[in-house]
Amino acid sequence: MGGAPGAWMGIALSVAKPATMTSSSPPATGGTVVDRGLEGVVVGATELSNVEGALGRLTYRGYDIADLAANATFEEVCYLLLFGQLPNAYQLADLGVRVAANRALPEPILEWLEATPKGAWPMDVLRTTISALAMFAPHREHDGAHPSNPRSAIHLIAKTPTIVAAWDRIRRGLHPIAPLPSLSVAANFLYMRTGKMPIPEAERALDAYLVLLADHSYNASTFAARVTASTRADIFAGATSAVAALEGDLHGGAPGNVMKMILEIGEPARADGYVRALVARGERIMGMGHREYKVRDPRASHLQEMARTLGAAFDPRWYAIARALEDAANAVLHEAKPGRPIHANVEFYTAPMLYSLGIPPDEFTCLFACARMAGWTAHILEQLGNNRLIRPQSSYAGPPATPWLPIGKRGSAGTTGLGE
Ligand code: COA
User: Fold this and answer.
1) Which of 32, 112, 182, 193 to pair with 7, CA 20 to 30 A apart?
2) Which one, of 341, 276, 339, 267, lies nearest residue 54 by Cα?
3) Is the C-beta atom of 286 inside 6 A of ligand 1?
4) Which of 146, 155, 216, 290 is catalytic?
5) 2-28 confidence digits (pLDDT tens)
6) Which residue's CA is minimally distant from atom 36 of ligand 1?
């Protein structure tokens, strides 16, 4: 592992801005809160990807995502992340065979999905099923741990799209379609949803999407995966933690809400009024802003181009509204939050792009998980390869030492605080 000596997994190895308590925090003992959101705090090293927020640059193991999006397949990126270098033709073919061989879901999982309420939220289904996969994988007899290695990573990368596509069909009252080994990850996903071979433009767009979202340094879900792995929990546990952390709309849950806005806006001319009303209500514009990028997210321009191209092939309305929405959001946020760099992030054009592929908005975050499973598993293996338990401190802000109060002396209020 490279990096400065001792720069591995020491908490708060470097702090990019002064440590402060927020003014609203209660008085605390036992240390100072560095930053509630760990903003600017370096908690570990990684060789996997580099986010250069001021420059708007993202690289995977040194390769710029602009080059990867234009030239690499998702399978090549999986290899790059898991094995540290781009594959040669033999290595890529071998990976493809292994991914294809791992796609099918265990029969009891399919039966269980068939029995799941049709209204279940796709991310709930995905999170639970990723966890359930562990029950069908080999484990050590003495402690139940599963092997965490590139093979189990490929197992998870291969099965995640199958879960998403199976649930997509089952909830529509259709039978899941078995994966086709001859297809790429992107083409196979689209095929498993519809039973039809995707057009090349659709396969290429989804493939580039998977490439662009495969990794992103220590984002919240990846950090959750690494924290879980640092306890020496296995790759299934780490992946389940990651899927759980992805769901919220401050992270991977935003694009479905971006599409909701686009559909509600309905036509480009209404974008400005819609955004002004939203910001006046104190709400956030989904798909805008980023913790790390102080300029436009470098993935956004690639996704924008794909949304434009797919829009031209299928339905140009969604891209047109998204463009108007971005312009309106930039103008309104410039007025409402002067001096704050809030630009389109990766989720913004993901919405019209995936919608053009026929994917429903409540599945967008699941597609994100299909891509990011490559990064999560690579990070888990990197963590386990040079592990130290991640265990930060907290600053205690509760009551001071308090004598024990017997139950008879705790008053007689008749409510529990839980409501009816
Ligand atoms: N719309 C409106 N205001 C926004 C905003 C948005 N999308 N993003 C940030 N802001 C504002 C906040 O309201 C806050 O303003 P204030 O200081 O006046 O209260 C300020 O910018 C800083 O926000 P903060 O939450 O501290 O920044 P962060 O670094 O935690 O934000 C995000 C990063 C992604 C959580 C944030 O930009 C956001 O909520 N975006 C919308 C959700 C989204 O797109 N999520 C996907 C992320 S890839």
Assistant:
1) 32
2) 341
3) yes
4) 290
5) 333 233 333 333 334 433 334 444 555
6) 289
